[in-house]
Specification:
The complex is a heterodimer of chains A (263) and B (342).
Chain A (H helix, E strand, L loop, with lengths): L2 E10 L2 E10 L5 E5 L6 H8 L7 E6 L2 E2 L5 H7 E4 L11 H7 L13 H13 L15 H14 L4 E5 L7 H13 L3 E5 L3 H7 L2 E6 L2 E6 L1 H4 L2 H8 L3 E5 L6 E5 L12
Parallel strand pairs in A: 3-8, 3-9, 6-7, 7-8
Antiparallel strand pairs in A: 1-2, 1-4, 4-5, 9-10, 11-12
Helix pairs in contact in A: 3-5, 4-5
Chain B lengths: L6 H24 L7 H11 L9 H35 L12 H15 L4 H26 L4 H26 L2 H12 L7 H20 L1 H6 L4 H6 L4 H23 L5 H13 L3 H25 L8 H23 L1
Classes of the chains: A alpha/beta (263), B mainly alpha (342).
Chain lengths: 263, 342
C-alpha cells in the first residue's frame, strides 16, 4: 500500500484551496500532478506530506490516517522536495544530504553504518560524488534540485513528493532530473507545469483546476485538446507516436483574446 | 551533524576550548590593581576546595575568592549563555541577525527586574530573576505578535525587536526616574548597559545552573535545529515536531536570557556576533556548534570584562559599552558579508 488521499479538502484564509480530492498512486509508479497556477498542486503535496491538516477527508499512509502517525515515523516513509528550498547557512552538499538521516537517528547516538550507507547511496544515484564539499550558495539551480532529491533519498522513503522540481532549469537539466526521478524505485508524486514532460515521464496524470480533480488517467487519456482548452484556456494539437503511443502536445498561438480557463 | 569534522577532531576542538577557557579565567583574575600570580589563584582555589593551606595573605585570598573569581566566572557563564541564546535564535528564526538583545528580550528582562527591585516585590536573586523572566517573556511575546501583525517575515521580526528594545528601555528609564531614589537611579545604568561588578557566588550558581541546563536542552534538540536550515516546513518534513521544538527552545532562551540579565544587566552583541565566529570554526552542525559557541562566548566575555574593569582604572566601564564597541563593527561586517552573498 502507499499514500492515498480520500476526499481531502483544505482551506486557507476562508478560501477552499483543495476541494475533495481523491488520489491513489500505484506502488512504484510516477504520478504527475498538473494544473494551472493556483490550482492547488503545492497545497495537495503538502497535505500528502502531512505538513497541513486536512479540513475534510483524510490522507492515508498504509491505511493509517496521517494525523495519527508520529511525524518522525512519516518522515522515514515519505520525503518531500519543495519548490523553493533556500538557506542562509553555509552548508555543503554532504551536510545537506545528511539532513535526510535526521528522522532515522536518535539525538545522542553517533552515526551508524546504515546512515553512511544511505547517504552514500543517495549521493551515487544523484551523481553528486564530485560536489560533496561544495557550498549550497555556489550551486546552480539544477544542482540544488539534485541535492534536495539526494537529501530526500537519504531518508530512504518509499514515497517521494516533488513540487515542480524542473522550475527554472534548462531543457537538458529538466530531462536529466525527470529521468532520474522516473527511474527511482519509489512511488513518486510530482507536480509539473510542462505537459510534454509529464507525458514523457509519468505513468498516470491527475489534473487539478480550482482545487478539484478534473481529469485522471494515463497521459494519452488525459491530455486531449479539449481538456487543455478547458483547463488552461489554450488551443493545442495532441499527436500520438504511432509506434510507442507516447503523446506530444503542440500549442497554437492565440488568435483572439484567450478565453479564461474554468474558474 | 557537520560532515567536516570527525568525532575525534570534534572532541579535540572542545577540549582545547575548555583549556583555553580555564587558562583565560586564571590569567584574567591576576590582572588588576592588586598584584597576583596564577600560582596565587591556584593556591586560593585549592584551599577553598579543601586541598590544604594556601599560604597567601587574607587580603589576596579575599580579592581572589570574594571579588575576582566570582566575577570572572559570572563573565564566563554570561558569555556562554548569551552566545547560546544567539545561536539558537539565529537558527530558529533563520535570521543571522537575531539575538536576545536585538529582539528586545534583554530590555524586557531589564524592565522586569527593575520593576521587582523598585516595587520591592520579594527579595533576593530569585525574585529578581522571576521579574526578569516575566519581562523577557512579555517582551518576546510582544515582538512575535508585532512581527506577525506586520506580515511575519524574518526581517520583520528584527524591526519589531528594534521597536521592543526602545519601548522597554524607555519603560526602564521611566520607572527608575519616576519612583527611584538617587542611588537606584544610578543603578539604571547597570540594567541598560550591563555590568558584572556586583557578581557574587549565588549569582554564579544560579546562572551557571541555568546555562548548563539550557545548553543540555539545546544539545538534545541539535538534530532538530539542523533540520531548520531550510525552514519550518522542511524541518517538519524531516520528522521534527516543529511547534513543540520551537516553543521549548524559545522558552529556554527567554529563561536563560532572564537569568543572565537579572545577574548582569543587558549585555549586547555577545549573542549576535559570537555564534558567527563559532560557525566559521566548526561549520553549521549544531552538535559541534553549540558547545563551541558557548566556549567562545565565555572566553570572549572574560577578557572583555577584564578590559572593562582595568582599562580606565580606577574608573570602571560598563561591560555592555565594551561589547558594543567591539560588537558594532563586527555587526557591520556580518551585514556586509550578507550583502555580498545575496
Amino acid at each position: 500500500m502507499t499514500v492515498h488521499a480520500r476526499e481531502v479538502s483544505w482551506s486557507a484564509g476562508g478560501r477552499l484551496i483543495v476541494d475533495a480530492v481523491t488520489l491513489e498512486v500505484a506502488p512504484g509508479s510516477t504520478l504527475g500532478l498538473l494544473g494551472p497556477n493556483g490550482s492547488g498542486k503545492s497545497s495537495l503535496l503538502r497535505l500528502l506530506a502531512g505538513l497541513r491538516r486536512p479540513s475534510g477527508g483524510a490522507v492515508l499512509l498504509d491505511e493509517h490516517d496521517l494525523r495519527d502517525l508520529r511525524r518522525r515515523h512519516v518522515a522515514r516513509r515519505l520525503a518531500l522536495v519543495e519548490q523553493h528550498a533556500g538557506t542562509e547557512l553555509d552548508l555543503c552538499v554532504l551536510d545537506i544530504v545528511r539532513l535526510g538521516r535526521i528522522p532515522h537517528r536518535r539525538a545522542w547516538t553517533p552515526d551508524r553504518p546504515e546512515d553512511d550507507r544511505a547517504v552514500a547511496a543517495a549521493i551515487a544515484s544523484t551523481d553528486l560524488q564530485d560536489k560533496l564539499a561544495q557550498s549550497w550558495s555556489t550551486l546552480s539551480g539544477g544542482e540544488r534540485q539534485r541535492v534536495q532529491i539526494a537529501r530526500a533519498l537519504a531518508q530512504e522513503p518509499r514515497e517521494l513528493l516533488l513540487d515542480e522540481p524542473t522550475n527554472h532549469l534548462d531543457i537538458h537539466h529538466q530531462l536529466d532530473l525527470l529521468s532520474l526521478v522516473a527511474a527511482l524505485p519509489v512511488t513518486t508524486v510530482v507536480a509539473l507545469h510542462d505537459l510534454n514532460l509529464a507525458a514523457m515521464f509519468c505513468d498516470q496524470l491527475v489534473v487539478l483546476a480550482a482545487g478539484r480533480v478534473v481529469a485522471a488517467g494515463t497521459p494519452a487519456a488525459v491530455l486531449t485538446p479539449e481538456l487543455i482548452q478547458r483547463v488552461y484556456g489554450v488551443r493545442a494539437v495532441v499527436t500520438a507516436d504511432p509506434e510507442t503511443g507516447a503523446v506530444a502536445v503542440r500549442f497554437l498561438a492565440h488568435r483572439s483574446p484567450p478565453r479564461s480557463p474554468i474558474p | 551533524m557537520s560532515a567536516r569534522h570527525s568525532t575525534g577532531r570534534r572532541a579535540g576542538l572542545h577540549l582545547a576550548g575548555l583549556l583555553a577557557l580555564a587558562l583565560s579565567i586564571a590569567v584574567a583574575i591576576t590582572i588588576g590593581p592588586a598584584a597576583l600570580s596564577v600560582g596565587d589563584v591556584a593556591r586560593v582555589v585549592g584551599e577553598h576546595l579543601g586541598f590544604g593551606e594556601a599560604g597567601v595573605s587574607r587580603i589576596k585570598d579575599g580579592i581572589v575568592w570574594e571579588l575576582r573569581l566570582p566575577r570572572t566566572l559570572l563573565a564566563a557563564v554570561c558569555g556562554a549563555g548569551l552566545a547560546i541564546c544567539g545561536a539558537i535564535m539565529q537558527s530558529l528564526l533563520r535570521n543571522p541577525l537575531a539575538d536576545p538583545f536585538v529582539l528586545g528580550i534583554s530590555s524586557g528582562a531589564s524592565t522586569g527586574a527593575v520593576l521587582v527591585m523598585i516595587l520591592g516585590l520579594g527579595a533576593g536573586a530569585i525574585s529578581l530573576s522571576a521579574g526578569a523572566f516575566a519581562g523577557a517573556l512579555l517582551a518576546f511575546g510582544l515582538v512575535v505578535v508585532l512581527a506577525a501583525g506586520v506580515g511575519g517575515g524574518t526581517d520583520r521580526i528584527l524591526l519589531a525587536g528594534v521597536a521592543g528594545t526602545q519601548l522597554f528601555s524607555a519603560l526602564t528609564s521611566f520607572i527608575v526616574t519616576s519612583s527611584a531614589d538617587a542611588e537606584q537611579t544610578r543603578g539604571v545604568l547597570f540594567w541598560l548597559l550591563g555590568s558584572l561588578a556586583g557578581a557574587g557566588w549565588d549569582q554564579v550558581a544560579l546562572c551557571g545552573a541555568v546555562t548548563l541546563l539550557g545548553l543540555a536542552v539545546c544539545l538534545l534538540c541539535a538534530p532538530a535545529l539542523d533540520a531548520f536550515a531550510f525552514g519550518q516546513d522542511a524541518a517538519a518534513a524531516l520528522g521534527v515536531p516543529v511547534a513543540w521544538v520551537r516553543g521549548l527552545l524559545l522558552v529556554v532562551t527567554a529563561l536563560l536570557t532572564a537569568a543572565l540579565v537579572s545577574a548582569a544587566g543587558a549585555i549586547g552583541f555577545v549573542g549576535l556576533v559570537l555564534p558567527h565566529a563559532a560557525r566559521l570554526l566548526t561549520g553549521p552542525g549544531h552538535r559541534v556548534l553549540l558547545p563551541a559557541t558557548a566556549l567562545i562566548g565565555a572566553i570572549f566575555l572574560v577578557w572583555v570584562d577584564t578590559a572593562a574593569r582595568t582599562l580606565l582604572d580606577p574608573q570602571e566601564l560598563p561591560v555592555g559599552v565594551m561589547t558594543a564597541l567591539i560588537g558594532v563593527p563586527a555587526f557591520a561586517a556580518i551585514l556586509y558579508r550578507r550583502r555580498a552573498v545575496a
